[in-house]
Structure formats: C-alpha cells, structure tokens
Amino acid sequence: MDGTLSMPLPKGFLDFLEENGLDPSIYAARDSVPRYVRIKPGDESQIPELEMEMKCKLEKVVWLPGFFAIPAHIQIASSKAYQEGKIYGIDAASGAAVMSLDISHGDHVLDLCAAPGAKLCFLSDLLGNSGSLTGVDIAKHRLAACRTMLKKYSLGDRCRLFVADGTTFSLLPLRVHPDSRLEILRNTGEEKIDLYEEWTSRRSWKERKKAAKARDNLHMLSVKTEPELIFYGPQSGVIGVSKSELFQSECGSETSKLGYDKVLVDAECTHDGSFRHIEKFEHWGWATLQRRVLDAKRTDSLTLLQLKLLSNGFKLLKTGGSLVYSTCSLTVAQNEDVVDQFLAANPAAELQEICAAKNWPCRSGRIPKTLRFDPLVSQTSGLFVAKFTKLSIG
Ligand SMILES: C[S@@+](CC[C@H](N)C(=O)[O-])C[C@H]1O[C@@H](n2cnc3c(N)ncnc32)[C@H](O)[C@@H]1O
C-alpha cells in the first residue's frame, strides 16, 4: 500500500498505474476535488435559496458557464432544486468534453454511449429548443435511467433513445421539421396506424405481445438485429414518421450530407481516471476491481471496442461536422493509441484544436490538440478528450 494516499490502493492497482505510466498521486488529490453541479439556464436566480438549503457556497466555475463547485461531502440529492430538476450533478471535465463539441443552434447530435446520461442532459440543455439529440447505449437498464433523467429535467423534448450496439448503429437523424410531421399525422387518416404517435410508457396488449415474441426470437438467435426505441420526445421528429422511415439505415454517400452535425463518443473504458468510481471498489472489494478493471484480456477487448465505437461514430458524422472522443481512463492505450489507430485508418479524419480549451485547467495529451483532465491539474475527475472533423476527400 502507498502510505501517502488517503485511500489505500491495492498493489494490483498501483502496478496497473505503473504499467500505464500513471502517477498514483493523482488519487491523493481527490480529497480536494469539489463536486460540480450545473444549474439549468433560467434557474440562476435560485442560487441564494440553494446555498441556504445546502448550507454551502456555490462557487462559479469561471472557465465553464453554468457550472458551480460545491464541497465534495455535500449531497445534492435531498435538495429541493435537485428534486425539482433545476440542478444536476456533472463533473466539470465531463462538461468540458461536451463544450468541446461547440454545439450550435439546430445541430443534430448523436451521443453513442449515452448512459447514465449526464452528458446527454448537458447536450440537450445546450441545444435548447432546436435541433435533435439521439442517445444510444447497449445497456437497456442504463438507458432507461437516461430516460428518467431527461424527463426529470424536462430535457427530453427533442431526444430519442435507442438501445443498440454503438459499433453498428446506423440510423441517421430525422432532418424533418417536427411540426410538419405532426401535421401529416393529423391529416393522415387510414395510414395513421403505421405512424409513431405521442410516446407513452404504457404499451398496448398487442405491442407487449409483439415485444415478447421479438425477445424470444432474439433469445433463439442470440443476436440483436434492430435498435430498440425506448423513448422519443414530442419534438424529436419521430411523431408522424413510419417505422420503415425511422429504421432506414445510413447508406454510404448519403451520410456526408445527412449525417449528424456533432457526435459524442464517450466510450466504455476502465474508468481508472474516475476516483469516485475507483472508491466504490472499497465496498465492492478490490478483487472485483482486479476482475473488472485490471484484467489484461478485458483491457485488450476494450481498446478494440473503443476503436470500433469511434470509427462508427465517425461514419455517422456529416462532412464538416465534429466528433469528440472521450474516456474517463487515463491510460495511453485507451486514448492516444486509439486516436493514432483511428487516424491511420481514416484519411478523412483530422484532429482539431479545441479552441475553448485555451482557458481550461488541463494539460495536453501525448498527441498535440488532445486534452487530459485530472484531479491534480484540473480539480476534476480524470478525462481524456480528442476532437475530430470530417474532411471531404475523393
Ligand atoms: C463511460 S459510460 C458513458 C457515460 C455517459 N456518456 C454519461 O455521461 O453519463 C460508457 C457507456 O457505454 C456503454 N456501452 C458499452 N458498450 C457499448 C456498445 N457497444 N455500444 C453502445 N454503448 C456501449 C455502456 O453501457 C456505458 O453506459
């Protein structure tokens, strides 16, 4: 054990850090890292009331608009503002990953690894009443948690959520004006039956039977063929669309024009940069950490997964659009190495400078233009961020 750390780390984890050239002292800095909250635009006037309720000062994060730091021991879950959906917890480094995308009014945005949904909420928050947001995650129960969050924070109006494998997901954004679709729905008589109507969590007996049959088939084939739509908001563009239209996959050349304007690939990783995640293993047992994080075979398959997610996210990006790749691992294997392999295989991909980062408390990754946040330098959780654009070639 390392005596300088307030949380004793097992030898296996320290070896993992050493093998990956990571400094264990970044975990010692965790006690001084605050908790971060974002206040939804328009609710800033509630700050004094919030401070009284939480018995602490909300320190403005000067480099990240709308973000506030509070002492790490303060729990926001019991506060009225949290329960009323006016503030949500999101680490400042996660906020920076989202800000790197430079969301503009009207953007169609894809979040390829969306659950549990903090970045999804922030994306929706930035889009406001414009564009669309598509969230994808392979874990249905985790994506269901995203749905709960979106509803709680009233951020789901323009969002649709698909349970799907992000390495093969291929649905393009619906670039139609939601209102024109609603008009079709109102005026279409006999075909209405095939068109999506307002989303409801209650499903008819017929739909439940159909879903059960699909599950049985899936079980027999043990493959998932089609993404499962588990939520869509009234302005997501889904209402009034037919199933065949919604599930029409991208087809090569179309994507350059009709793909997403912005894509976030916040990939599955070993989470070793997130000390709050590592801390959980104190309760779950360090053997679980060994199995889930340190196992070399798992890490190898993870880097392959990360590369596939990044490559597929890029495929779905329109020409001139921006993609952000992030992980909460600090290992080079899951970050710079993945970026190098991706760039070598994708001549249309170009690394971009993250302009806003000039004033951010982070350091450069091993590849220029990439960023690394960590508790020591940034007073945040650990995060790697790289931004790409898609060039028009050939
Ligand atoms: C680091 S978490 C994402 C955190 C999320 N962006 C947020 O801000 O709350 C990674 C997510 O990737 C999902 N995932 C793992 N493999 C996937 C795959 N093949 N396709 C899509 N999602 C995947 C996991 O279920 C997990 O929810």
Question: What features would you highlight for this structure?
Answer:
394 residues; alpha/beta; 4-stranded antiparallel sheet; disordered N terminus
Q: Helicity level, as a percent range?
A: 25-40%
Count of extended strands = 14
Order of helices and strands: HHEHEEHEHEHEHEHHEHHEHHHEHEEEHE
* Poorly predicted ranges: 1-5
Shape descriptor reads globular
Percentage beta strand: 15-25%
End-to-end distance: 56 Å
Rg is 22 Å
> What's the tally of helices?
16
* Average pLDDT rating: 87
Structural class: alpha/beta
Instruction: Summarize the biggest pleated sheet.
Output: 10 strands, mixed
Structure, explained:
The chain is α/β, with parallel strands linked by helices. Helix content is 37%, strand content 17%. The protein has helices at 11-19, 25-28, 47-54, 80-83, 92-99, 118-127, 140-152, 178-187, 205-221, 243-246, 255-258, 275-284, 286-294, 296-315, 336-345, 375-378; strands spanning 35-39, 59-60, 67-70, 87-89, 108-111, 132-137, 159-163, 228-232, 260-266, 317-327, 349-351, 363-364, 371-373, 383-390. The strands form two sheets. Strands 5, 6, 7, 8, 9, 10, 11, 12, 13 and 14 form a ten-stranded mixed sheet that branches. Strands 2-3-1-4 form a four-stranded antiparallel sheet. Helix 7 links the parallel strand 6 (132-137) and strand 7 (159-163). The longest helix has 20 residues, at 296-315. The structure holds S-adenosylmethionine. S-adenosylmethionine binds next to helix 6 and strand 6.
